[in-house]
């Protein structure tokens, strides 16, 4: 498991309802971090239906989801599970932390 955290942005650059992206330099995975009412969630920035960036889509703060613009698949920001067709598989959820004035995440898959 990688212990290398990826810098996402300064904490004051990620306000509620906003998202930021980065790439894990170790695994090459895209990461999208979303501020949902003050709580940060990190998912792989890739739709499980058809490899497209989730960050190109929109966040629904009431539902706590992110929607892929390609075909409308939605994913729960809290756990990555698919909420509707055409996606059936979840997207990986990554750990996220705030430290030293910044937001950090990492791809912690084996």
TrEMBL record:
GO terms for molecular function: 2 iron, 2 sulfur cluster binding; metal ion binding. Pfam families: Rieske. The keyword Metal-binding applies. Residues 6-105 form the Rieske domain. This is Non-heme iron oxygenase ferredoxin subunit. Keywords: 2Fe-2S, Iron, Iron-sulfur, Metal-binding. PROSITE patterns: RIESKE. It comes from the Bacteria. PANTHER family: 3-PHENYLPROPIONATE_CINNAMIC ACID DIOXYGENASE FERREDOXIN SUBUNIT, FERREDOXIN-RELATED. InterPro entries: Rieske_2Fe-2S, Rieske_2Fe-2S_sf.
